Fold this sequence. Notes:
Blueprint (H helix, E strand, L loop, with lengths): L20 E4 L8 H9 L5 H13 L4 H10 L7 H13 L3 E8 L2 E10 L1 H9 L15 H20 L3 E5 L4 E3 L4 E3 L5 E5 L4 E8 L6 H17 L13 E6 L2 H13 L9 E5 L13 E6 L4 E6 L39 H39 L8 H27 L1
Parallel strand pairs: 8-9, 9-10
Antiparallel strand pairs: 1-2, 2-3, 4-7, 5-6, 7-8, 11-12
Amino acid sequence: MVNDSEVKAQKSPFAMRNNERKVFDGKDGYVSINQVMFNVDMGYITDIHFEILEIINKYEFVTARQIFQLLLLKGIDIKSQSKVDDKLQKLIKTKVITRYYFTSEEGKGIFRVYCLEKMGKYLLASREIKSEWQQTNNAKPVHLIKKRLAGNQIIISYIEKVKAYESCNINAVLYSKKQNVKFKPTGGVVRLNDGNDVQELVFEVVRRNDQWEEKLIEKMQLYADFYNFFLARDCDFERPPQLVIVAEDNAHISEIFKIIKKASIPLKDTEMLFTTELKHLAESLENSLIEFEYSQENNTYKGTAVNNSLLLLKEDRIQMPKIEKKEKVEEVEEIEDVETETEEVPEQIQEKTEAEEEKNVENEEIKEEVVEEIAQEEEVSAEKPKRGRKPKAKVEGENKEKEEKPKKTTRKKATKKEE
């Protein structure tokens, strides 16, 4: 897997493309719960598969690379990206999860997006893990999925790189008292705590989808109401959190700032910070946040990096393993899932048991053929008359002939006497 600092992409993979659409790339057909439970009972679906399910359940939409990063951050030694791809492929075949990819005028996307299926929710419930997933979640449009992916990438960067990182909330809910509306930040909330200071960052991801300017103004108005009428303990915040708007690129940051200013939304300049997901690929996040300062001399706004002591680099951070030079490296994500041989015992057992199952299926088919042949022979033998017995019609004919013969002899005797 390519480390964040080695990514040389000029455009975020989670930015919108022209005429972009979502394409289904999962398993088609029906899989029963009995088939899923068979895989669990036989050890084909193991604890590592459940760890992957928990990650997908928590982050809603994730890429294979993000799953690999989160597994390593949880302390799970998964060895390589190809191992994760094998596990994901097994979950897809049993329809526990599904996946999509994006295509546009620029071509097919370079990553796949994984999300839950109904069977996955059932398996999580078996371990008392709450899931808010619904089947309609997978029907979300491209821009909403990409907002979640960008927010996930930012949260992963904070977990991996920021020393003061404490926790995150993917499904945080804020409340606009003036409009009496509850709304969710599209990028989630990150809590930082270095022992002396605590700060919470609310990430709002903006994408260039259709009518994005109008929807941005509506969402910023909700944030303005939240901040202007904020009281301690509102939405479980001790003090107002810091709003961070996540744009697609630097030019998009300027566009967003101009739209907010033209709409006269009552938000202070210090209440809004800006960033992009590409800024979180750097080795350190100390310069990842930008604020606009007003210059009275030039009557303009200038964007400068925010100096935040809570964003200091984590010294004992987990280093992501590098892939070998022989493998083809993409800038951000892997092109497709690679099926490789695994070294784990459950996978070896799986190969043996699958071979045994094939043999059993062949034996059952042979038995069925033999039974059919026997049944056909019995039908044919039933149609043929049994040996040593004549047909009923022939027997009746012979009896009639016997009865007629003695009658003829008696008539001859009678005529002789008359003579």
